[in-house]
Amino acid sequence: MSKVELRQAQPEDLEEFWQLAFSDPNAGWTKLNGPYFHDDLPTKEEFINELAPKVWLGDKEHY
Description:
GNAT family N-acetyltransferase, 63 residues, single chain, globular, mainly alpha
């Protein structure tokens, strides 16, 4: 049986995470958003420098 280990995201994970989650504006998951969501996907720079420190890295300095 395989084991999955969860850990908090690290700064070195951010570029790969952005690539998987936000690099394709036509990703399948974006089509599941309701018509009331008009969120733009973050650029790599926005994600790494602004969004990720607040949300994924738990950096309270950016709140």
